[in-house]
Amino acid sequence: MKIQLKNIVMEVETVGAGKPTLLLHGLGLNHSIWQNIAGLYKDQARFILPDLRGHGVSELGNADGTLEQYAEDILELLDQLGLEKVTLGGHSFGGYIALAFAEKYPERLDSLILIASNAAADTEARREQRMREMDNIRATGTAEFAETLSLRLSDRSFVQAVTREMIAKMNPDSLINAILAISRRPERLHVLSAFTGPLLIVAGAEDLIVPEAAARMMAHANPLAKFVIIPEAGHMPMLAAPRTVGAAIIIGG
Fold first, then answer.
1. How far apart are CA 137 and CA 131, in angstroms?
2. pLDDT computed for residue 40 by the predictor
3. How far apart are CA 49 and CA 89, in angstroms?
4. Is residue 147 assigned to a domain?
């Protein structure tokens, strides 16, 4: 369904009934990455699956290249749906947004779940690399970036094919806006340390983008955090092991 926010029309799919569980996808992807999990566990939670600003079929609107704007979109979505509190989960880029939301609106969260994400800021070298990626997208479009990123997301051919297609279909301006927001993010380990609700960190054992050490650092930031590592999974554990990741979301959230 389409939901009118102040600045954009957002595409949102809802599946199931029960505890509201809002899941945010990663860079260049869309809400469909969560559909297997939602289908498996729809009798145990109400899954709310948006396409983030500029992703999928959600509008880009007057984008400002900040994670905070994406977080404000999520706040508006909760208000539109009449939800006071939710379990909020985020994959990679979606996790950066979830952390920005948790920093400003912790009272709107029952629990927080970060999947293949990172609370650290970019190094200067990584930030410069992102600038080059944005320049290349401006010059040549999204296809090359889609090919390169899909190979890093997973070593499974079906995951590579699905993610490559999603990313390649993105509007270049939308992809650039998201990469810029990622490059500007601050370190947010303090948000995890201060979070008082249930906190779950999920990592893929073979993730080429977020090292296991970074995931463990997030878990260690809060003594009450639960840490789950998914064996034989890369940066897309929800596609590689939907039953396992879904169970972790249901139990940990």
1. 10
2. 98
3. 10
4. no
Structure tokens, 246:
């879904």
pLDDT at 27 over 80: yes
Domains identified in the chain, total number? 1
Range of the domain at 78: 2-122+187-252
Is there a domain that residue 165 lies in?
A: no
Whether residue 146 is contained in a domain is answered as no
CA distances from 107 to 18, 23, 88 (A): 20, 18, 12
- Dihedral angle, C-alpha 32, 8, 118, 179, nearest 10 °: 100
What are the tokens at 216?
A: 């463990």
Q: Looking at residue 33, which CATH number applies to its domain?
A: 3.40.50.1820
CA dist., res. 74 & res. 228, Å (int): 26
pLDDT at 252: 81
Rounded Cα distance between 70 and 184, Å, is: 13
Cβ count near 214 (within 10 Å): 16
pTM tops 0.85: yes
pLDDT tens digits, one per residue of 86-123: 999 999 999 999 999 999 999 999 999 999 999 999 99
Q: List pLDDT tens digits, range 176-207.
A: 999 999 999 999 999 999 999 999 999 999 99
Interval 206-221: pLDDT, tens: 999 999 999 999 999 9
Q: With respect to residue 178, please indicate whether it lies within any of the assigned structural domains.
A: no
Using an 8 Å Cβ cutoff, are 130 and 122 in contact? yes
User: Which tokens sit at 2?
Assistant: 């389409």
Q: Are 83 and 101 in contact (CB under 8 A)?
A: no
Cβ atoms of 11 and 245 within 8 Å: the answer is no
